[in-house]
Queue: 4 jobs
Job 1
Amino acid sequence: MEDVPLHIMLTALVFLLILSGFFSLSETSMMAINRYRLRHLAKQGHRGARLTVKLLENTDRLLGVILLGNNLLNTASATLVAVIIATFFAHDDFALLIGTIAVTFAILIFSEITPKVIAAAYPERIALAASYVLTPLLAICYPIVWFVNLFVSGLLILFRLKPKKGELEQKISTEELKTLVLEGGHFIQHKHQSMLLNLFDLETITVDDVIVPRSQIEAIDLNADDDVIHTQLLTCHHTRLPIYRERMDNIVGIVHVRKVLNQMQGGKITAATLEKVMRAPYFIPSGTSLFSQLQLFQENQKRVGLVVDEYGEWMGLVTLEDIIEEIIGEFTTQAPTQTSTFLKQEDGGIIVEGSTLLRELNRKLSFQFPLDGPKTLNGLILEYFEDIPEAGTGLNIAGYPMEIIQTKNRVVKTVKIFPVSLETEAKNLE
C-alpha cells in the first residue's frame, strides 16, 4: 500500500462512503415507502414497484443484504483510514485518534444521517430505483445472507420473538383509514371525502340515531271512516305509510300510496283497498347499526322498517332514505311538516323542537352535542334536570345556553338555543 498515492486512497475512501450512503438510502426508503401506493404501482405494471414488492416480501433477506453491504463498506472505510495514517504518519497515535474521529464523523454525516434524511423525504423515488440494484445483489450474495439469517432466526426463536407468517403484513384499522382519507384532502373532493368518512361511521351509528319517532309518523287507522282514509291518503306527504287497527301499537302493514292510487279506478279509497295492497310490516330491533341495516334492506328488498325495543313495542320507523342521508347528506326535498324544525330568530337564537334528534342538530347546525346518551334534545334536557322543567327555565348543556319555551304531556316541546360565543365554540371543538 505504500506505493499507492494518497489521492487514490482518498478517492477510494470517498467512493466507499458513497456506496455506504447508497445502502443507507435503500434501507430507510424501503422501510418508509407507502406499501399501498407501492402495490397500486405494481398492479399498473411498474417494474421497479414489482421488484420492490418482491424484496419486501422477505424483509429479513432484504435487510440482510443491505446491512451486509453497509457494514462491509463502513469497515473498509475505517481500515483504509488506518492504512493511510500508518503509511503517511508512521503510526502516530495522535494522528490515529484524529483519523478515527474524522472517519466516524464522515460516516455519520455522509453515509448515515444525510442519506437517511433524504430517503425519508423521498422514499418512493429512491426505493424503486434501488430495487434495480438490490435485486441482483441479493441473488449474488444470497448464500452469505442465508447463512447470516440462520443465526438471526436462531436468536429470534431462542427469545421467542420470531413472528408468525402474516404478522409482518401491514394492517390498517378503521381509524387509520379515516386518517388517510383526511390527509388525502388535497387529492379528494371535499364532498367525496365527507361521504367516505360518513361510510366509516355507519358501523357506530344505530337506527335509534336516525329514527322518526311515533309522534311524528303519518299512519292510517283501518277502522276509520272511508272518507277519512281517502282524505288522509290524498293529503299525505310520504309515499309509504304504516297501517294500524284501532291503536298505533297494532301495526298490520305498510302501504305504498302509489299502489293505492292505482287501485282507485275513479272511486274512493277504502279500508278494503288498503288491505289488498298493503305489505306485511318489516321490524328492526333497536340498536341495529346503520351499516347492518343497509345490508338487510338490500337483502330483504325493503325500504321502510319499524324499529322495536326489547319489549316488542315499536318506537318509530327508519327508511332507506334516512340511511342514505347519513352518507351523502340531506336531500333538498322535505315534507311541509318538517320545514319548521328550526326557526332562526332576529337575535341569532334558534327555536328547535324537543323531539329533534341530536345528530340532526349537530349535522344541520354544526353543534357539538354529546351523542353517547339520549338521542333527542328532549331526552338530553330531561336527563339534565331529572325532572320535567317548566316553560321559561334556562339551562346550559355542553356550552350551549338555551331556554325552555313549551312543555306538554311530560315532554319538552320547543326550546330556544341562543348563539354561542366564539370562545365557547372553540372549547366545544377541542
Note: Confidence is low (pLDDT under 50) at residues 335-340, 422-430.
Job 2
Amino acid sequence: MPPSKDRICYFYDQDVGTSYYGNNHPMKPHRLAMTHHLVLSYDLHRKMEVYRPRRSYPVEMTQYHAEDYVEFLSRITPDTASEHMQSMQRFNLGEDCPIFDGLFDFCKLYTGGSIDGAVRLNHGMSDIAINWSGGLHHAKKAEASGFCYINDLVLAILELLKHHARVVYIDIDIHHGDGVEEAFYMTDRVMCVSFHKYGDLFFPGTGGLSDIGKNQGKYYSVNVPLRDGIHDDGFQDIFQTVMSKVMETYRPGAIVLQCGADSLAADRLGCFNLSLDGHADCVKFMKKFGVPLLMTGGGGYTKSNVSRCWTNETAVLLDRKLPKDIPEHDFYYEYYADQDYKLKVEPTNYIENLNNKTYMHEVKKEVLENLRAIEHAPGVAMHEVPPDSMIPEFDEDDLNYDERYGGQFGLDKIVDRDDEYYDGDKDQDH
C-alpha cells in the first residue's frame, strides 16, 4: 500500500493519560496513554507531525459554555466539593461526572488538542488532525453529562466555522452525540449525524428518528437509531448509504469524526458487536472524500480494545496496514494478553443482532427521505470572520541547543519521509 500523501498532525500530552476519575469509575483516561504507547510501538509517530497540545483558556471555553459553569470548574476541587453541593447539583457534577484532582487541567488539555487541530485544518497546515483525548460529546452549555465536562467538539466546530460555510459532525460512539446536536440544533451550518444505540432507556435517551432539528436547522440533525448486537455488515451498509447521501447533499468544507470505541464488541458499557476492522471502515470511508478531517476519541470502556481501536485507525489514516502481532512495549504483558497479544477485536457469539432487515430498511428509508428535503447545500451570508484561536509560535533562535534538538519542540517537528531510506542514527548504507 502506498504511503499516505495527507499531512497528518497528532496531539498528545502525557498528563492527559494520568488523569483519574476515581475508583470503579468506567472512564479511564489511562487508555490514552495506552493508545499513545501502542502508536509509538508501531512507529506510526514517525509519519505524523506530533504535537503537545496547548492548554485551552477559559475564555475559549466560554465561546460556547456558560461563564459561571467554566469558572466553577476552574476552582472546584475534591477538598472543597462538600462546600458547594448546591452548585454541583446545578451543574450536574457528582457520581457520573465526579470532581477529581486536576479536573480542569484535564479539560484544558483535551479541549486544546481539538481546537488546535481545527486551527491547523483551517489554515491548510494539515489535512487530518488527530486528538484521541477529545470527543467528549455529552457536555452541555452549563452542565456536565455522561463523563464529559467541556464539549471540545462544539468548540472545535465553532473554530472550523470561522473558515468553512458548512461542517458535518459524525458520531459512531454507541451513545447519541446529544451535546453536539443540542448546540447546533437550530442551524444549517452544521449537520450532526449520529449512529447510536437507542431505546430500552439507554443513555442519554435521545436521538430518535424524529429528532431532525428545528427552525433553520430542520433536517440538519440526522439520527440513526440502532438496536443491540449490530454487526459489521449492517453497520457499514447503513453508514455508507447515509454518509454518501450526506456528502452529496450537504457538501461540507470540513468533517469532524467522533470515533467512540464503545461501539466495539465486548465493550464494558456497550452492546454493539463491531470488529476492529468494522469500526475502522467508517474512518476509511470518510477519508476517501478528501475533505479536511478532525478525528477524536470518545467513549470506550475496555481499555485494551480502545487502544487497539484508535491505534488501528491512526494507521488507517496513514494508509498503513499493521501487523496483527502487537510489538512489545511498556504495557504489552499487562493489558494485551486478552487477545493473545493480537491487534484484533472479534465479534462475540453471545449477543443477538436485533437489527433485522425490516427495521434497518425502515430506518434507512426515513433518514434518506429527510435528507431529500434538503434540495441543496445552504447558503451562508457574508460576515466578518472572528479571529482564530492561537497556534503557539516559537522563535527557534531563542531556544538553547537542548531545547531545539533534544526537547519536546525538536521531537514535535520530526516526520520521516517515505522517500528516504535512512532510518535512524544506526542505519548503514550498503
Note: Confidence is low (pLDDT under 50) at residues 392-430.
Job 3
Amino acid sequence: MDMVSQLVSQRPNFFANRAADQEKAIAITDFIYMSPGLSNAYMVLTSAGRVVINTGMGFESPVHKKVFDAVCPGPTPYILLTQGHVDHVGGVGLFREPQTKLVAQRNLGICQEDDRRIKAVRQAQSSIWFKSALTRAAQGETEARPEFVQDVPVADIVFDDHHRLEVGETSFELYSTPGGETIDSCVVWLPRHRILFSGNVFGPLFPHFPNFNTIRGDKYRWAEPYLASLQRVRALAPEMLITGHFAPIVGANLIKACLDRLEAAVDFVHRETLNGMNSGKDIWTLMREVRLPPELHVGEGYGKVSWAVRTFWEEYMGWFKAEDTSELYPTQPRDVYPDLVELAGVDAVVERGRRKLTEGNPEAALLLAEAALAADRDHRESLKLARDTHQVLLDRSGAVNFWETGWLRHRIDRLDAALKVARGGTG
C-alpha cells in the first residue's frame, strides 16, 4: 500500500468528530496547542502573547478557552480565521479581548451573508447530520452548551490575497485559497517553522476527494480554483500540515504525495467529465462511469467522485439536462406518480420494486418505492420496500461517506417510525 492510501486508511472518518469536551489542550509542538472539537481550535504561543486560529462553535468555545487559558491566559493580540463556516468562527466573541484584532480573508462577510439568507433551511437540513453532537452537548455530556451565543464576527483586518503578521518572534503569513469549502478560505503559514494551518481548504478529511457540493446545502465550489489553491499550498512545501479536523500530518514527502494525488484525482475527474459531455454522454451515465483508477486512490469519506461529476456537469451546462421538456416546468414526475401507480396498482409496483431489489438494483427499487409512497404514504408494504432499499444502499456503501451515510440512516429512522403507525402494527 502506498503512503497516501495508507494515510487514508489510518485517519479517522468524519463520524469520529465530537463536540469539545477535553480536560487539557494537546501540545503539537512546544509552542502550538490544539483543542479538538467539531472543528479544531489552535493556539500559537509567542513572546507577545497567544495567537488563536479558529475558535470552534459558540457552544464549544468555553471548553477551548478553558484549556488554552490553562496553558497561556493571554494576552491575545490576534485571532486568525481560516474560513467563515460557523464551526470555525462561533467562539470569536469569547476569545476577543479589548486589544485583539480579528484577521480574515475579505470574503468572510459574503459567506456570512449567504448563510443568513438561507439560515432557516440550512439549520433544518444540517440538523440531519449534526443533531447528535448538539444533543450530547445539551444533555451535559460535555461542558459545551448549545445555548452559548454563536458569534457572527466582523474582522478588524481583511486581506485579498496575502497578509503578513509579526507577533513577537513569530511570522504568520495568510494566503487566500478559495475553491475548497468556502470563497473566504485561507491558510496560515509559519515560514520559519514550515508549518501550515490548512483549515478546510481540502475539506475536513485529508486526503479525501473534495466536496464540490454538499447535500446539506451550499453554493457550488469549482474545480479550477480548488486546483489553483492546492498548487499554492504545495509550492510552500510544508513539513507539517495542521488541518481543520483531527491530528496534524507530518513529513514533507507525505504531504507532497497527498497533494500530488489530490491534484491528479480532481484533474482526472474534471477532464473525464468534460470529455464525456463532449462525446454526448448524459449526466447520469457519467456519474456511473467516471471512476478513479487505482493509482489515483483517495478517500471518499466527505466528497464523492459521482457527486463531483454532477457538479462539474452543472457548472458548465446549468440545470437543464436537455433530456425532457418537463424539466422546463414545475410539474415533475413525482407529481404524476399517483396516476401511474393507480393504473398499475400499488401492489404491482411494490412487487416490481422487490424484484429490482432482489436483482441487485436498489436504485431502481428506490424509485418504485418512492412512486408507491407518493400515491399512498401510509401503505405498509411500500414503506417496508423503501426501508429495506435504504438499508441495502447503506450496506452497499460501507458507511464510508459521511453525508450519504447520514442521509440514509436518517431516512431509515423516519421509515421505521412510519412503519410503527402504518395500518396497524409494527414490523
Note: The mean pLDDT is 93.
Job 4
Amino acid sequence: MAMLILLVLLIFFAVLGVPIAFAIGASCVTYIQSSAPTFISMIPQRIWNGVFSDLMIAMPLFMLAGEIMNVGGLTRRLMNFCEELVRPINGGLGEVNVVASMIFGGISGSSVADTSALGSIEIPSMVDAGYPEGVSTGITVASSTMGMIIPPSTAMIVYAMISGGSVGALFMAGAIPGLLIGITQLILVYVMSIKNGWHPKHRKFDATRFKERILGGLPALLLPLFIIICVSFGICTASESAAVAVFYSLFVGFIVYRELTWNHVWTALKKSFICSSSIMIIIGFTTIFTWVLTMQGIPTLVAEFFMGLNMPKYGVALIFVILILAIGTFIDVSPAILLLTPILLPVMHSYGFSTLQIGAIMITGLAIGLVTPPVGMCLNACNKITGMPVIEIFKHAFPFLMCNFITLILISLWEPLTTWLPLLMGYSLY
C-alpha cells in the first residue's frame, strides 16, 4: 500500500510539472507527514547521508574534466582524429560519428554531454556531405548512449555508491557492452552507407595532414586510458583519478592545445556545477524515497514476489530488462538507478546475478531510455541543435538503437560479457 501511495503521489506531482527531484521529495514528505509525522525531523539527516560519499566527489570532477576538454579544443581534434582513422571506409562521416562517441564517452562519462558537444559539429558536417538530416541526427543520438556505458561513467559511479560495488570493477563491466554497441553500430552504418551511397569524398592521402591530425588527437585520447588504468589497477581511487583528469585537461588545454582561456574554465565550472548539483539534489531526495520503502518492507515484499514466481534465471532476466526499459522511458538515468537498485538488487542476487552484471544491464537499458520519448534527454539535446521534432529524431535513431537492444539481451543472458574482464583484472563479482 505504501508503494502505491508513493507512486500515485510521485505521478501526481510529475504531471503538475514539478521537476523529478522535487516530485520525489514532495511525495515522500507528503506521505511521511500523513502517516508518520514524527519522522519529518529525520529528513535533513537522510538527505545529507545520501550525498555524503567519497564517490560523489568523482562525479562533478569527471564532468568538469569533460567540459574543460570540450572548450579547450578537444572536440574538433577528436573529430579530425576519427576522420583520419575511417577515411577510406564507406559512410565515412557516419563512422566518424560512432567512433567519436566511443572516445568522447570515455572522457565526459555522459551521453547528454556527448550529444551536445559532438552533435553541434557532426550533424551539420554530415548534412553538408549529403547525409539526410534525419539520419545524421539519428546516428548522433543513438551513438551517444555509449557515453553512459563506456568507462568512465557517471552512472556507474552512482550505481557503485548505492550497490557498494567497486567503481573499477563496474568500469570494466561496462567496457565490453559499450564496445559491442559501438561495433554493431559501425557495421550498421557501413551496410546502410553501401545501400544508400553515402561515401566519403575521395582525396589523395596526405601524410603530413595524417600525422598532424593523429598526433593532435593523442593527448585527448590519453585521458580515458589513464583513468581506466589508474582505477582498474588500484593506482588511485575514482575520486583521485577524477581530480587528476581535471588537472590533465587544464594542462592539455593551456599548454598543449593553447586554446583554453580562463573564461572557458569559468564557463566549464558553471556548467559542471549546475549539472552535478541537479544530480546531487536528485540523490538526496531519492534517499528519502528508498528509506520510506525500506521502512515499509517493500524490498522484502518484492523479493518474496519474485521468488514465488519460481521462474528460471533467464525468465527473471527478461522481466528485469522489460522493467528497466519501461522505467527508463519516463525517468532519467540517475533517479532510476537510485530508485531501483535498493529494491531489485537483493532480488537479482537471489537468482544468482552478480552486482556487476546487474549494473551493466541496468545502465545499458536506461541508456536506451535517453533516446526514447517522452523524457529522452539526448533527444531533447538534439532537438535544440537541429529543431527537428523529438518523435522524428527517434524514428531515425530506432534502427541504431536496435544495436543497443541486442547488446542488452546478450549481456542479460550471458554473464561473461560483463564479468570476464573484471575477473581478469582480479575484481570480485559482488
Note: The CA atoms of residues 98 and 128 lie 18 Å apart.
